[in-house]
Specification:
The protein is an alpha/beta fold. 33% of the residues lie in helices and 17% in strands.
Length: 430
């Protein structure tokens, strides 16, 4: 141990800092935070009475808006980490001590990224989504941004100790559920499209079964949606796969008029506390997040406020945040979309840790290159190039490609490095 004097309110006090011990510190021997809810718990019931057969989800006491110590972010951070306030100065020795205590307790979450399930992409960004980091996923309309983000959320929620929170300004929770049923019918990464279920197929199965019951042609009287899906041969396996993570994928239909940045912060803080910090947040999409009581002078100013707020959520709650970003009008006219084509690009570039830009492969092939074959290139219309344009933890401007199965709302996560020449590339094949 060693000591140093510091002056607080005119008094001299001794600040004692421990060196690394061989055994856990007294702080480490304190009771650990509540474990994450089991698979049977429905975290989405936060704020509602839990079902009788389910154990209650840990609840936070009502927050006093006039008490700074009960700010949602601070409540969650204190409950999750047993660390001193992140807004208080600490010596490097204290930081090392806290990290050492975490490792001694077996808590390696700060060192373990959450793989997105898109294997080659995870290899480029350091293994997956990391705590405190903001990842942006940009692209033009219809390129598959929501498909990719929802599939990543599903992949994370598939792990028994992890939860995903998907905030959608574009689709209802029911529509997202139907998309996931279609995705599960092809079962990534196997991608068996022979048994694939399209949205129309799913709706036809549900409507026809209910019609037979109402007309008296089916006397089983199954009635419920789950019974129909469970008993139909084309949907039974998809439902079984979806149920494996149904309690760990939390969704909310956001509204640009109601779901403000502050509301996202509060919801995320409560979920992070209830899941012991094992949470990844997805925002679909950034430019639709409302701000209040802040006022923006223009679209650029609003994007700056939102992206700074999302980055602060990732930092203060110690969780990964992935947000979809839309392209601006000029970007949609470009032959190949880049980070600087996104709305509010200067703030996005500054605040994010990783930026991934999606382009249709056929559209960005260098068609004037000597090796370009227009007939062979047709096969690339269903492939999407993921370009890591910013990467604070590794190499940037790397291109990976993934095949999109749009009718089933799924990517084949077994991608590969792009071998063909793309426009805007500086390296010319010989």
């Amino acid at each position: 141990m060693y000591g140093e004097f510091t002056t607080v309110a005119g008094e001299q006090k001794l600040m004692v800092t421990r060196r690394f011990p061989d055994e856990p510190s007294e702080a480490a021997s304190e009771p650990t935070p509540p474990s994450a809810p089991s698979q049977g718990q429905n975290v989405a019931r936060i704020g509602r009475p839990p079902a009788p057969t389910q154990p209650p989800v840990p609840q936070s006491p009502p927050l006093d808006p006039h008490n700074p110590s009960q700010h949602p972010a601070r409540v969650s951070r204190r409950a999750l980490t047993h660390r001193p306030s992140q807004h208080m100065p600490r010596t490097l020795a204290q930081v090392l001590n806290d990290a050492n205590d975490s490792v001694v307790r077996g808590d390696l979450s700060d060192f373990t990224p959450q793989p997105t399930g898109f294997d080659p992409l995870d290899g480029l960004i350091g293994g997956g989504l990391r705590k405190t980091e903001l990842v942006l996923l940009g692209g033009a309309q219809g390129i598959g941004k929501t498909i990719a983000a929802l599939q990543m959320a599903r992949n994370i929620a598939m792990r028994p100790d992890q939860f995903a929170f998907y905030i959608s300004y574009e689709h209802t929770e029911t529509h997202l559920m139907n998309r996931l049923l279609c995705l599960e019918s092809v079962n990534p990464p196997e991608i068996d499209t022979r048994n694939g279920l399209k949205l129309k197929d799913l709706f036809d199965i549900i409507i026809s079964q209910r019609a037979r019951e109402l007309l008296g042609r089916d006397t089983t009287k199954s009635g419920s949606l789950q019974t129909i899906l469970r008993e139909h041969p084309k949907t039974s396996m998809a439902l079984a796969r979806l149920n494996k993570y149904a309690d760990r994928l939390i969704m909310v239909k956001a509204s640009p008029a109601v779901t403000t940045l502050s509301a996202i912060r509060e919801m995320t803080a409560r979920l992070a506390e209830a899941t012991s910090g094992n949470l990844t947040v997805f925002v679909d999409y950034l430019q639709k997040v409302a701000i209040y009581p802040e006022r923006a002078e223009n679209e650029e100013d609003k994007v700056t406020i939102v992206v700074e707020g999302l980055k602060d959520i990732a930092l203060s709650l110690n969780i990964p945040v992935l947000s979809i970003v839309a392209a601006d009008r000029e970007g949609l006219k470009a032959k190949r979309l880049h980070l600087f084509h996104l709305r509010g690009s200067s703030a996005l570039d500054y605040e994010c840790d990783i930026a991934i830009i999606m382009n249709n492969k056929y559209q960005v092939l260098a068609k004037d290159h000597i090796s370009f074959n227009p007939y062979a290139a047709q096969q690339f219309r269903n492939w999407v190039v993921f370009t890591v344009e910013k990467n604070r933890a590794g190499r940037a401007m790397m291109d990976m490609e993934f095949q999109l199965h749009a009718p089933f709302f799924a990517f084949d996560p077994r991608g590969q490095e792009v071998r063909q020449q793309l426009i805007d590339d500086k390296i010319i094949e010989s």
